[in-house]
Design brief:
11 helices; single chain; 21 strands; 6-stranded mixed β-sheet; about 35% helix; binds P-hydroxybenzoic acid
């Protein structure tokens, strides 16, 4: 087994791991990033689309926003559809000019990988059997196999940025973490279609047949979602059935959804999850490794980037001054924003989805809530400030 050393070992090359590597590089801190999938796989994994204003400003400040600024689509509002009508929430008017940017997670990940490769610092794809050790001591290690060789990486700190199904969180001894979770009785069937988006702004639709969302990736690519069962069998969904369902849920008098070739279809389950604290000894969890939100509030990627921003600042302070104050406060600082996003995502999910065999009482509450957020300035402002991202939590 060969042994190497670095300051921070980063497990996972998703948005959290890559951004942390970038931030620490800017401060001259050594990192090794380990990713168990291939570069092609990571760059093609379609997920988030909505970036908060604060996330865009942050990526721009750290020099990772060049393509985001030229290709990202700035949106100043979203539409909520219910009872056969659309109602605009003017995000920017309600938040002192703040907005969101539509930029695919795939594109952000490609940008961050290019930045990493330019630095010449290690980013290893397709590593196997990753395991973390000696978390309680001051020299934790990561073991893995790469290109047929067993490797051991000795470091000062491990950053667990390996997503919800990663190995870092499960490596924390039982009894240390408090876990909070909620499973939802539905999922999202998502498609990417080669057709110009039929609406200039995102449309979140409440419908008797279930929720639907019209989103986009570019002026030529639409991203659409249909509420389905969490274990929905994609084999039962022909292209015709998908479009029929989207027309039924999103259609309006005088407006039609344009169809195009479907490039990708996927089903996502929906879950809320938080573990506390987001740290064990020298292992720090960040992003989906520590918390998950249902996608209705478009918060997951934004939270992941906030975590690594806080973590990087704390690590830089520790390496310069020797103070562990930032690291000691890491979990608590992140969890404040995490729980705000957990609540917002849970609330949006409940307001918009139809549980199977929905109780008419619940449906009337949903419609009343939707009417309230689309008629009351105070209620609309509350939705808007959470959606574009709160500056202070
Ligand atoms: P991941 O992106 O999961 O990255 C973790 C990485 O670790 C992966 O590359 C994985 O392959 C790797 N890994 C796993 N195990 C190991 C191991 N053992 N060893 C090495 N590497 C490992 N968020 C938003 O903010 N806005 C949105 O609009 C939005 N829309 C979404 C829509 C959908 C349908 C879904 C599913 C999610 C959406 N999200 C959204 C959430 C967002 O995609 C995630 O929160 C985000 O990917 C989290 O980034 P991460 O880096 O923490 O985790
Ligand atoms: C997306 O474009 O993928 C998207 C948009 C809004 C959401 C979730 C996902 O709430």
């Amino acid at each position: 087994m060969s042994r190497t050393r670095t300051q921070v070992a980063i497990v996972g090359a998703g948005p959290a791991g890559l951004t942390l590597g970038h931030l620490l590089h800017l401060e001259g801190i050594d990192t090794v990033i380990l990713e168990n999938r291939s570069r092609d796989y990571v760059e093609a994994r379609i997920r988030a689309g909505v970036l908060e204003q604060g996330t865009v400003d942050f990526l721009t400040e750290i020099g990772a926003g060049e393509r985001l600024l030229s290709e990202g689509l700035v949106h100043h509002g979203i539409e909520l559809q219910f009872d056969g009508e659309r109602h605009r929430i003017p995000l920017s008017d309600l938040t002192g000019g703040r907005s969101i940017v539509i930029y695919g997670q795939t594109e952000l990940v490609k940008d961050l990988i290019l930045h990493r490769l330019e630095t010449g610092r290690p980013l290893h794809f397709e590593v196997d059997d990753v395991s973390v050790h000696d978390l309680e001591g001051d020299q934790p290690t990561v073991r893995y196999r790469h290109e047929g060789r067993d490797e051991e990486l000795v470091c000062d700190v491990i950053a667990g940025c390996d997503g919800f199904h990663g190995i870092c969180r499960p490596s924390i001894p039982e009894g240390v973490l408090s876990e909070f979770s909620r499973e939802y009785p539905f999922g999202w069937l998502g498609i990417l279609a080669e057709v110009a988006p039929s609406s200039d702004e995102l449309v979140y639709a409440h419908h008797d047949r279930g929720f639907a969302l019209l989103s986009l990736r570019s002026p030529e690519l639409s991203r659409l979602y249909i509420q389905c069962r969490p274990d929905e069998d994609l084999a039962e969904w022909t292209e015709d059935r998908i479009w029929d369902e989207l027309h039924a849920r999103l259609g309006l008098d005088g407006w039609a959804l344009a169809e195009g070739p479907i490039l990708e279809t996927v089903v996502h389950g929906m879950r809320s999850y938080v573990c506390e604290p987001m740290r064990y000894g020298r292992l720090f969890l960040a992003g989906d490794a520590a918390h998950i939100v249902p996608p209705t509030g478009a918060k997951g990627l934004n939270l992941a980037l906030h975590d690594v921003r806080v973590l990087a600042e704390a690590l830089v302070d520790w390496s310069r001054s020797g103070s562990t104050a930032g690291l000691d406060a890491y979990s608590e600082t992140c969890l404040r924003r995490v729980w705000r996003a957990e609540h917002f995502s849970w609330w949006m999910t409940h307001m918009l989805h139809r549980p199977e065999g929905a109780d008419p009482f619940d449906v009337r509450l949903q419609l009343s809530q939707l009417r309230y957020v689309t008629t009351s300035d105070a209620a609309a402002r509350s939705l808007a400030e959470n959606y574009v991202g709160l500056e202070v939590v």
